[in-house]
Specification:
A four-stranded parallel β-sheet has the order 4-3-5-6, sandwiched between helices. The chain has a two-stranded antiparallel ribbon with strand order 1-2. Strand 3, helix 4 (86-94) and strand 4 form a beta-alpha-beta unit. The protein is 38% helix and 15% strand. The model has no long low-confidence stretch (mean pLDDT 92). It folds into two domains: 5-50, Orthogonal Bundle (Helicase, Ruva Protein, domain 3); 68-187, Dna Topoisomerase Vi A Subunit, Chain: A, domain 2 (3-Layer(aba) Sandwich). By secondary structure, the chain is of the alpha/beta class. Helix 1 crosses helix 2 (22-33). Bound molecules: zinc ion (ZN).
Length: 190
Amino acid sequence: MTQPASYQHLIATLDQLPGIGPQAAQRLTDWLLATPAVRQSLQQALAGAKTIIRCPTCRRYQLESDACGHCANLDRSDLVALAVDERSAQQIKDRGFPGVCWVSHGVLSPVNQQGPRELGLNALSDSLATWQCQQLWLFLPDSVEGRTTEMFINQLLSEAEVEVHSVFYSGNDVAIAMESMSAEEASWGD
Ligand SMILES: [Zn+2]
């Protein structure tokens, strides 16, 4: 007897998640089928996620129905941080960054089909102009892709009147990189 199609479908769907292979996908499927409470909670969470979109200006997550809370009521929109993911953006804000965070959702990586378009870099200048940004701080992973992304952005903004600073961090942890910034750097040009 063959396995139910819905069982195979669940395995195939989980197999598409990054970092999960077919074996782990099957283990997760078996575990979910044995754990109804988590299955139900996952269903609810996924249904709720349908209303989450990326803000067209800052690319952070927001509810489709609301104005973006990250872009509203900015004290200092002249100061912008570029973060590669939502987690880093939150860490940057939690560490007292007074400006606004713009999220690229990745770094340039031809192997992973991540070009300037996928990162929204074609719209970065528009957002910076909207905010009348004077200073852009790039928080990027210290990798070939991170360095390439920095070069690309510097080139992209070479004509713009924006001061660009770069902070590279290793180990995927932007918070540690911020702690090791000098007091002068961390005053954000005040
Ligand atoms: Zn926004």
